[in-house]
Design a protein that fits this description.
By secondary structure, the chain is an alpha+beta fold. The chain contains eight helices and 13 strands.
Length: 279
């Protein structure tokens, strides 16, 4: 049984009139065309507002997904993570998890300008979410974690800069994944937008971790610079599909792909990334 798993940042896919900006219709139609081309069995999405977004995407697909879910995370802009799948799954959010700094102590910060004015500190959590979906595939338990780490934007009110928060998110993800990777009956995979190149210091808790493999790097980027994001940002790869070692045993060699196309440039400021497994 072959299973393709992909991740895709949809770039501010908002539909609600009260949102910061509704995604233009031409971008939404282009995005559905891209998803059709990727043809993933399990698709991890970032920057999707709510379930209505997934319903609209499904309506424009030649092969709609049977199972869809959006988790409302901690973003005050509503850039949430979602899953579209041809396989049934259970879901679990980690948005209430408190982050730790390099000193192993909990991070605290001002969540709003009012909190800064009143000097009210709160524990720092995942800026969006780390969402776990559990699948049963041919008797194997696949644990797929979808995430979207802190952007590179710094805010004057915050005590901690973006790199510090992103490092803490990456470190906490490693701690959470470690609880499952040691279990022989669990196949673990991390996917999403990590908002940093693979040589960036802030995600080294993940990219330097021997328990995870990076097929996009190993099959493509090591020989030819690869980019998954463009436009206003430097052209660089910040989107990942990272299987744990035991899941990598099922990886189809050479299947790692960055889905670049003219239509993809119209849909988002990211390209989708996918890899295939044979169970």
């Amino acid at each position: 049984m072959k299973v393709r798993i992909a991740t895709y940042n949809c770039k501010n896919y908002f539909l609600s009139p009260e949102s910061t900006s509704v995604k233009p219709a031409r971008e939404r139609k282009a995005l559905a065309r891209v998803i059709n081309t990727v043809n993933a069995d399990i698709l991890c999405l970032q920057e999707v507002e709510n379930r209505s977004v997934l319903d609209e995407i499904n309506q424009n697909l030649s092969n709609p997904y049977d199972y869809c879910l959006v988790e409302n995370g901690n973003s005050n802009r509503g850039i949430n993570v979602g899953i579209m799948s041809r396989l049934i799954f259970d879901g679990q959010s980690h948005k209430e998890t408190h982050l730790k700094g390099k000193n192993k102590q909990l991070l605290y910060d001002y969540q709003t300008e009012h909190c800064e004015a009143t000097k009210t500190l709160s524990a720092v959590k995942f800026q969006r979410d780390l969402f776990l979906t559990e699948f049963n595939i041919k008797g194997k338990t696949l644990l797929l974690f979808n995430t979207h780490l802190k952007s590179r934007r710094n805010y004057q009110r915050l005590k901690h800069d973006a790199d510090t928060i992103r490092w803490s998110e990456a470190s906490m993800i490693r701690e959470i994944l470690s609880q499952y990777i040691s279990k022989p009956d669990c196949l673990v995979l991390l996917a999403g937008d990590l908002n940093q190149r693979n040589d960036g210091e802030s995600i080294k808790p993940l990219t330097d971790w021997a328990e995870l493999r990076d097929p996009i790097y190993e099959d493509i980027e090591i020989n030819d610079p690869a980019a998954t994001t463009f436009h206003s940002k430097p052209k660089e790869r910040i989107d990942y599909v990272l299987p744990a070692l035991n899941l990598y045993d099922y990886y189809v060699p050479g299947s790692a792909k960055i889905h670049k196309s003219t239509i993809a440039r119209k849909a988002s400021d990211h390209f989708p990334v996918s890899i295939d497994f044979e169970f």
